[in-house]
Amino acid sequence: MTMWVFGYGSLLWNPGFEVAEQVIATLPGYARSFCMRSIHHRGSETHPGLVLALDEEPSHACEGVALAVKAGTEAETLAYLRERELISSAYLERELDVDLVDGRRVTALAYVINPDHVQYCGGLPLEEQAQIISTAVGGMGPNTEYLYNTAQHLTEIGLHDPDLEWLSQRVRALTS
């Protein structure tokens, strides 16, 4: 049985594991948003950045990609993803049904935000998000790089995210 992973943020442009197939997919019941304070990868404890997370929203659906893990690499991929995504307990690992653009429905591993975690910050106004992203830097680099790469990759694969597009323009204006 194929192991699938749902990518909606950095997994879109930096999966970090061998991908056998990539298909545009929709995850119902969740919204992609900058609702997690990053104290490791894109910020620090003294100056947290923001990273995307799947925030449970029953009336929403998140468009992203379903990544099929190369057969035979499932165990190492799962170990890698857990080390990468579960660096703090802010993300919860879930198996959720996603709808592929070609009509298939598959169960995919997804990392969703724990709304009870101290790093959760859902509902921040876009301007406040832009101010935070424009200055934060973490162990994986500037928060701006994370935003720009994600927004650019969504555009390249034909997905439209108005909030990320607005944030990209605003952050560029703040940093120029």
Describe this structure in words.
The chain is α+β, with helices and mostly antiparallel strands. The chain has one domain (4-175): Gamma-glutamyl cyclotransferase-like (Hypothetical upf0131 protein ytfp). Helices cover 28% and strands 39% of the residues. The chain contains four helices and seven strands, in the order βββαββαββαα. The protein has helices spanning 74-85, 126-135, 143-156, 162-175; strands at residues 4-7, 19-38, 49-69, 91-100, 105-113, 137-138, 141-142. The strands form two sheets. A five-stranded mixed β-barrel has the order 1-3-2-4-5. A two-stranded antiparallel sheet has the order 6-7. α2 (126-135) packs across α4 (162-175) and α3 (143-156) packs across α4 (162-175).
